[in-house]
Design goal:
CATH superfamily of the largest domain in chain B: NAD(P)-binding Rossmann-like Domain
Number of strands of chain A: 5
CATH architecture of chain A: 3-Layer(aba) Sandwich
Oligomer: heterodimer
Mean pLDDT of chain A: 88
Low-confidence stretches of chain A: none
Structural class of chain A: alpha/beta
CATH topology of the largest domain in chain B: Rossmann fold
Largest sheet of chain A: 3 strands, parallel
Mean pLDDT of chain B: 91
CATH architecture of the largest domain in chain B: 3-Layer(aba) Sandwich
CATH class of the largest domain in chain B: Alpha Beta
Structural class of chain B: alpha/beta
Number of helices of chain A: 6
Strand content of chain B: 15-25%
């Protein structure tokens, strides 16, 4: 979804995923570059063009893999705009303390639900 | 000392056993329920089940009073996270991480892990040591930096043989700390000291300066 929206806004997007099935699900017409690889590995990040990137988004299922990838990008490739998905919102404070910008869909959804209840 | 071990696979199990028999207070955290049951059988109630990269689980394990946290799971991301949570949230004095992929070693140290242990690097350095024709041996990494201690034997016909140390320009961030002659006799790199054939030069250097250092010390003129 993120890749799709960014591509539709006209940004150049590269996707790195360890699953071929996930990559195959993306529609061809978006012009998104897909690469089979591991976002926590230096050489795969390089292959995906991390050195030219303006933004890095880590949205894998495992939170600690997102944190490793994000910290690697920030400290080895000196990229400041690094966004990290968090599955379990209880980890958010911890990730903030590590200097990672985080997005928690679970927290966003629960906030919306609470708002809807109180309306 | 009170020591928490995150991940009780092969490495974690043996570390736990060794620390227990040395008289330390040990608590292991294991996520896999089968492994957890096996450890309870073998070592008794020194293990809890849960994700050791999770602040709540570390809190339950008593990380606040732990002297050290050792993260030895098969996943580098979990090992890093466990050490970072231990350090930042619980102010644990010593964090030690197993590094499965050696490329993560310097990053982990940069991110606050006190000690990194890479099995791959250890095996590689043993191989280097055992292969006599290998020109550069990684002795060990220095803590809190990407510097490392290396050993380089001076070939008999190298251009630097017979020259005083100060006449040879070394690459940046590189320092010769010891010379060991062919009989194993060490000497300090003081002024006026000469490079001799078959000396082993022990130096502190960085990954980027390493190749240049090797070239300078082993180059043959003509």
């Amino acid at each position: 979804m993120v890749a799709r929206a960014m591509a539709l806004e006209g940004h150049a997007v590269s996707i790195l995923d360890t699953s071929e099935d996930n990559l195959r699900r993306l529609p061809d017409h978006l012009g998104v570059i897909t690469l089979l690889g591991d976002g926590t590995l230096e050489q795969d990040l390089r292959r995906a063009g991390i050195e030219e990137a303006d933004v890095f988004v880590a949205v894998e299922e495992r939170d600690s893999r997102n944190a490793l990838a994000a910290q690697k990008v920030r400290h080895l490739f000196n990229l400041d705009k690094v966004i990290c998905n968090i599955g379990d919102p209880v980890r958010q404070d911890m990730y903030l303390a590590l200097g990672l910008e985080t997005v928690s869909p679970a927290r966003a959804a629960s906030d919306m639900i609470l708002q809807a209840i109180h309306r | 000392m009170y020591i928490i071990i995150v991940g009780c696979g092969k490495v974690g199990y043996h570390v736990a056993q060794a620390l227990l028999s040395a008289g330390h207070e040990v608590l292991a955290i294991e996520q896999d329920s089968q492994k957890y049951a096996a450890i309870v059988d073998a070592l008794g109630s020194v293990v809890i089940s849960g994700d050791g990269a999770e602040a709540a689980v570390l809190e339950e394990a008593g990380a606040g009073r732990a002297d050290a946290v050792i993260a030895v799971t098969g996943q580098d991301d979990d090992n890093l996270m466990a050490c970072q949570v231990a350090k930042l949230r619980f102010k644990v004095a010593k964090t030690i991480a197993l590094v499965n992929n050696p490329e993560n070693e310097s990053l982990f140290r940069k991110l606050g892990v006190d000690v990194t242990v890479s099995q791959t690097s250890m095996i590689l350095s043993h191989i280097e040591e055992e292969l006599p024709e290998h020109p550069l041996v990684h002795l060990f990494p220095l803590p809190d930096s990407d510097r490392r201690l290396v050993g380089i034997p001076i070939p008999r016909d190298a251009a630097v043989v017979g020259k005083p140390l100060e006449s040879v320009t070394l690459p940046p961030d590189t320092l010769i700390v010891l010379l060991i002659d062919a009989r194993g006799e060490p000497r300090l790199p003081t002024e006026g000291e000469l490079f001799n054939a078959n000396d082993e030069v022990v130096a502190v250097t960085t990954p980027s300066a390493e190749a240049a250092l090797l070239h300078i010390l082993t180059r043959v003129d003509g």
